[in-house]
Amino acid sequence: MATPHAFRHDPAIIRYYHAHLYYEDAAGLAEARRVAAAAAERFALRVGRFHERPVGPHPLWSCQLSFAAEQFGEVVPWLALNRGDLDVFVHVGTDDDRFDHTQGVIWLGRSHALDLSLFDDAR
After folding, report:
1. pTM of this structure
2. Which PANTHER family does the UniProt record give (predicted)?
3. 99 in Cβ contact with 37 (< 8 Å)
4. E-strand spans in 34-108?
């Protein structure tokens, strides 16, 4: 019989989710705009700026979609089926940025290495 495992976190600490649409060029930017607009029409979420350079820990151009934790079961499956050729980085929002970007993550499409160095001072 397995030894009981003490879990560190209660899912109630997840306050929100971010889904980052990744793209690398003008064609990808157009696709990200299309996906973001369709998601915003379908769900109560916030569409961030469309960056045309890597920002923060993100290695590619990106746009952030922000949504409530309660919407995860609707938004993420929709993105999985409607992301086109975009890679999507989904992460929890717990106010622990390093944890959120390393442990509380899901990739739709290919995964990419993040630049985690900006979280070094947060430890």
Report:
1. 0.90
2. AFR070WP (PTHR36423:SF2)
3. no
4. 46-50, 61-68, 87-93, 105-108
Q: Where are the domains of the chain?
A: 13-122
| Residue 107, token pair as written in the block | 């990739």
Instruction: Classify domain 13-122 by CATH architecture.
Output: 2-Layer Sandwich (3.30)
Quote the CA–CA distance of 79 and 22 in Å, as a whole number.
12
pLDDT in tens, the chain (123 residues): 455 555 667 888 999 999 999 999 999 999 999 999 999 999 999 999 999 999 999 999 999 999 999 999 999 999 999 999 999 999 999 989 999 999 999 999 999 999 999 888 655
Orientation angle between helical segments 26-42 and 72-82, nearest 10 degrees = 140
Please state, as a whole number, how many other Cβ atoms lie within 10 Å of the Cβ of residue 59.
Answer: 15
Q: Say if residue 68 is exposed, middle or buried (CB neighbours under 10 Å; 0-12, 13-18, 19+).
A: middle
**Which strands form 16-23's sheet, in the order they lie side by side?**
46-50, 61-68, 16-23, 87-93, 105-108
